[in-house]
Amino acid sequence: MVETLRRRCAELRIVSGSGWADFEIGDLDEGSRRQIAEHGLARPIGITEANEVVFGEGVLRACRDLDWVEIPVRVVDLDGIIAGKYSPQALREEFASDERAGVRRAILRRVLPPAILAALSPDQ
């Protein structure tokens, strides 16, 4: 199991420019923001070791809007996933389906040239 850590919201980066950073993310609705304000997060967001957000972009935006200083995070080992260090079963158990989608996008950003990534972007 991946350990939950805390990181300063200001240190976390949402990767953009590929056309994929805002895909399936959107802003959280007011009810979701209120839930975060009243009860905190149900689960941490995912980041790389370089503090790039892998999944949970909308949650990070909401927490920043709520003036949170720190947020719970899980560091995702993208290099290990790409190298095949984890079984498919382990990945399914470790990440929820929406988190796996974020991991897929982060891996694509890492391995594909920008022009190919832009051509595959859903907004093209």
Give a quick rundown of the structure.
This protein has 6 helices and 4 strands, in the order βαββαβαααα. Helix content is 43%, strand content 14%.
Give the termini distance in whole angstroms: 37 Å
Order of helices and strands: EHEEHEHHHH
Low-confidence stretches: 17-25
Give the spatial strand order of the biggest sheet. 1-4-2-3
Explain this structure.
The chain is an alpha+beta fold and 124 residues long. Helices cover 43% and strands 14% of the residues. The chain contains six helices and four strands, in the order βαββαβαααα. A four-stranded mixed β-sheet has the order 1-4-2-3. Strand 2 and strand 3 form a beta hairpin. The longest helix is centred in the last third of the chain and has 15 residues. The termini are far apart.
